[in-house]
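User: I'll paste a sequence; please echo it back and then give the predicted structure.

Assistant: Echoing your sequence first, then the prediction.
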Amino acid sequence: MELIEEGCDVLLYLDHRRTYLVKVRGDREFHTHKGFIRLGELIGKPYGCAVESNLGVRFYALKPLVRDRVLKTERRTQVIYPKDMGFILLMADVGPGRRVVEAGTGSGALTLALANAVKPNGRVYSYEIRPEFQRGARRNIERAGLAAYVEFKLRDITEGIEEEDVDAVILDMATPWLVVPHAYKALKGGGVFLSFSPTIEQVMRTVSALRGYPFIEVETYEIMLRRFIVEENRTRPETLMIGHTGYITVGRKVLE
């Protein structure tokens, strides 16, 4: 049984709408509208245990999952939602030992998911042109304990990719079509190009660029996800949902 230690991150769960990612320190209190929790009381207890605030409100202390960290990242940019991340990981075949080029790093939410997938012996090469974004992303990755699997690069990927024979190039940036020539050169045979774009105009330019090179299986997708409220005699979809987030364009490199 894994126990909570001093300095560990814990996700305090009140309900499905209210969760809090906190670092456990023996001398700290975490204050909420439901009262405060003495974090030192969690030390030595197992993950999943219940803890009460001074007002008697019950919280649960969970070990943060990657999806929790993604949604709780220190943000200076919009992040890719988990509904899209899962599909991205599958379509780009990101797994243990893979070498993946990513741009731009942004807040590092997708970087977290990629690094978690490629460990223990893979590598993510994350390109970003904004140093302030990179600093924030680095803090998020370090807090998650995944820094060993990420190489941060303060470099404009539209000017070239330094790595060779990589398994995937994954882009979340305004002009992915400018990277297509560099991605083709960097990818191994059969490697995957993937871009996430919020507008269809970006998709059209990217697909046009991909068709100018030997890429096959060039497809574009949009992922929709709807959560349900399940209660006896009143099960129904939630009234609000996250609708359009972006389009995912994928292609695979072949050799001429």
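Helices lie at 66-71, 82-91, 109-118, 131-143, 180-186, 200-210. The two ends are 54 Å apart (CA to CA).
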